Amino acid sequence: MLSASAEELPGVELLPERLARASASVLPVFGAGLSLCFAPERHLPLGASDPASGEVERQQFTTGEGPCVACHDSGKSVLASESTLRSSWPGFFDAVASRTPVRSIFTLPLPDELLGVGVLEFYLDSPDGADALSIEHAVTVGGQVTAVLQAASRGAQRHSELPGWTDTPPAQRRALVWQAIGMVSGSLRLPGADALALLRAHAYGSSTTVDALAATLVSGQVRPRDLAPDADHPR
Length: 235
Description:
Blueprint: H1 3-8, H2 15-26, E1 31-39, E2 42-48, H3 51-63, H4 67-74, E3 78-80, H5 82-88, H6 90-99, E4 104-109, E5 118-124, H7 129-132, H8 135-158, H9 169-188, H10 192-205, H11 210-219
Helix pairs in contact: 2-8, 3-6, 5-6, 9-10, 9-11, 10-11
């Protein structure tokens, strides 16, 4: 499943992207994404098959809702047609529908060692596409993805290190969010959860993502006090 993409995307840090692309290529879907979801506020993106699929994950994290969150909470796969997305997670759906062609999603928890944290999502551009997707085939692909990730983890496990495939470009960008949370928390004297909620509110209200807003904070383009509820010119 990976032989062709390994040449184009070499390196263990790009393994999740290779897997996402391969997963999307063997199933009748628009795209796919891999992530680790420890909690709604601790969602780590690993790789996506294409830019639109990566955007879906970022909007899911920005709004704090969506099929991936539901999958993590229940430990079960989530089939979400457009009507389900619209009614269950309206903020997430509006953000995704205005930025990507994705209209339905199938979210699958990964098995074995990744059970409870690993998530593979399939994105479809048809309103009812997720309902037509073969669950059996999706589960088979999920098992193959897990096997590849586990095989790549063995060396790290012997040295008590995180696997190299967790240090992906999307994960590095998400790390800026934790820095931004610390900056906002310290400057505005807010608990971490409230700092994240403030970042999410400003990002959503500004039609951007938490990742993009965090980058401007860490770079100094935006100051934490600019996000204060009583700021004269919030951004």
